[in-house]
RNA sequence: CGGGGUAUGGCGCAGUCUGGUAGCGCGUCUGCUUUGGGAGCAGAAGGUCAACGGUUCAAAUCCGUUUACCCCGACCA
């Protein structure tokens, strides 16, 4: 591709709307343009990358025997009413009417449509297992689209659905998908992790997420190098501390802590380490009242774990000031487990503390030197907190690491949730009707493009992994308009590399060297070769990998073959 | 949906408080010069100042209404 023929507008300045690196760089390098909130046009350069992700994904789907189909983007309301999700899916579902006032939605996902296909087409267990996939535009009316294409309302997703007689078959195919997804991200050259995940609203028994590691990721993921444990933070168990609790020391006394409402203020004021100050959160209970959750001051409550406890209301909500006053007869900030007459759950780590500080259930007062079993009853300990870096791994292989990740794939064992609500059955070998087991598997194509940039960039621009780059090599011809030798050499190199199967971007624009070099860094192709009068005098071209600090000189005569070897993919 | 902010040429911004001929940088076009890290000079095109309504001799500027977009939060296969 000749850059002079590509209507590419790179921006020197970043549009004001862009916050994170991938969004900024995608706008600056001309990969995408925004149409409206959460809606983007994919320009030639960006679309080439999206197509690469599609291609790799399609190949891996075909390798595990999934069949590609294309379902409608617009779905009739009846189907969604049948599954119950016309209401349950909420405002994320974009609803519309046609001229006949019939109701439709723009598909945010396709369980309903595929289950309808399956119940019509599949009659016998002999046709199972079978799996279908499509690569298609989805629309979810997100409350707050952000981060460019990372959380757009309209986006491209590869979604797959599998159908089975029996859970064993589902489990087998689920394993195939897990491998196929791993291969996709492996081939794309991304640093990723597969983690246990919450199956959430969609239901089902088992699910895993694929995360591309990046500091800007919205999710926290936890894993251990020494074993195969890996999970989304919301699911990661926090094990009880090892060893015996310290022995009680001095008697419990009351301390004056005027106006200290945060645990940090209290710890500082009492000159205690944060982990020795226990915080007591009062949260709303199912059907009124409150429940107390006690954690170490340096630990965070885990919503999924907390709402899993009996009595605790879902979603997790802190009690208001009035409810706090009623339960503990003090303002928020001074609540403690001593003589507290509501149901109290204590996190394992908090239950392991001795001689700790906590709220005294009186305004401006905290207790110090408090001990379980002495000043208050032995606690009922449960796992309540988010795991933290360095915790023991549940897999037993060492300590946990934590990193931020961007969710680019999610695979589920759905079971019979949809086949039951929509009555999708086949006849088994005894001629009896059975609800099919289902799996569903999503991979965010456009989000993967953004995640790749998020993981691979520097202050100058994008650094594409070899496999994802829109072109693998750029020829930067300096002063091409004035120097015949440069033009001839560059043209010849361009032709040779193309004939050797390299995807080449040829910067043949009549622009200044600074502009061309800056654009090359911004666009971020892995291989760059500079053709200049200066080099040609010595019979050399200059080669540089986007990740390398320094350039190397290649003999002009041998350059084409050498570069073709490096850049062919 | 709650809170905060913004809207002026393709992009980034000033001008608004204190009403009086709409400006700067980048980009674009033409010409000449220049050419290894976003060149120089000369010239040019391009804006109903988000929309609607009001006040005024006069509104980008003051008042009102609306819309769009962004940020934080809640939300989120």
Task: Describe the protein's architecture and organization.
- The chain is α+β, with helices and mostly antiparallel strands and 569 residues long.
- The protein folds into three domains: 14-236 and 402-453, BirA Bifunctional Protein, domain 2 (2-Layer Sandwich); 253-382, Alpha-Beta Complex (YbaK protein), CATH 3.90.960.10; 473-567, Rossmann fold (3-Layer(aba) Sandwich), CATH 3.40.50.800.
- The protein is built from 16 helices and 30 strands.
- Strands 3, 7, 8, 9, 10, 11, 12, 20 and 23 form a nine-stranded mixed sheet that branches. It has a five-stranded mixed sheet with strand order 27-26-28-29-30, with helices on both faces.
- A hairpin with a 2-residue loop joins strand 1 and strand 2.
- It starts with 20 loop residues before the first helix and ends with a helix.
- 43% of the residues are buried.
- The model has no long low-confidence stretch (mean pLDDT 92).
- It binds one RNA strand of 77 nucleotides through residues 9-17, 19, 34, 36-37, 90-92, 108-109, 111, 140, 142-144, 146, 151, 159, 197, 199-203, 207, 209, 315, 407, 410, 412, 440, 442, 476, 478-479, 482-483, 511-519, 521, 530, 532-535, 542.
